[in-house]
Amino acid sequence: MFDTAKAKALVDFAAKYRLQLASALDQIDTRKVAQAIDWFREARDENRQIFICGNGGSAATASHLAGDLVHSASSGAGKRFRALCLNDSIPAITALANDDTFAHVFDFPLQNFARKDDILMVLSGSGNSVNLVEAVREAKRIGCRSIGLTGRDGGKLGALTDLDINIPEQHMGRIQDAHMAVCHMICYYFIEQ
Questions:
Q1: Which of 68, 78, 116, 181 has the fewest C-beta atoms under 10 angstroms from its C-beta?
Q2: pLDDT tens string 129-186
Q3: How many C-alpha atoms does 133 have within 13 Å on its Cβ side?
Q4: What distance, in Å, lies between the first and last C-alpha atoms of the chain?
Q5: 49-54 β-sheet, strand order
């Protein structure tokens, strides 16, 4: 067991993080989340595809969202989500990165699969990931709607996406925590309604 002073420092750190996370969560624009929910509903009802992608921790959140949509938000609902996480195909990503460049690992598959009025959701704490910017540009060329989950000042994606749900926080962990909360707001609307 550790000493009392060390235990207090750890408790204080956790309490401070929790307080700062609550502040980040308070900054989620729920009107924009409602718009995203509506777009997801339309995509589901019109049998449209939803593509989701991110890098690093945001890739894990993107994968989690796709899994929730395909399973929990579709179970027993009559209508099902057609959601695909673009960063889940490791063979495709590594082939594209090796043969071309990492900048095109997401826009290239969109050329194969995306159709007008589909949705692309990109997750990026900085908002400046080149491969996500290229994916949004390709989605716009195809005629897809684009949703960004961004942090900090929104970066390039904040201005480029059709709907930017921005967490104006500097700390990457709290940005990603808030992005997961947004994803759960979207999914649990369909699970609990």
A1: 78
A2: 999 999 999 999 999 999 999 999 999 999 999 999 999 999 999 999 999 999 999 9
A3: 14
A4: 46
A5: 82-85, 49-54, 119-124, 145-151, 163-167
| Burial of 80 per CB tally in 10 Å (0-12, 13-18, 19+) | middle
| Residue 67: both structure tokens together | 């899994």
- Biggest CA–CA distance in the chain, Å, is 61
Distance, in Å, from the CA atom of 123 to the CA atom of 44, rounded to the nearest integer, reads: 20
CATH topology of domain 4-192: Rossmann fold (3.40.50)
Token representation of residue 101: 């460049």
Residue 70, SS3 per DSSP:
helix
- What is the distance, to the nearest Å, from the Cα of residue 2 to the centroid of all Cα atoms in its chain? 39
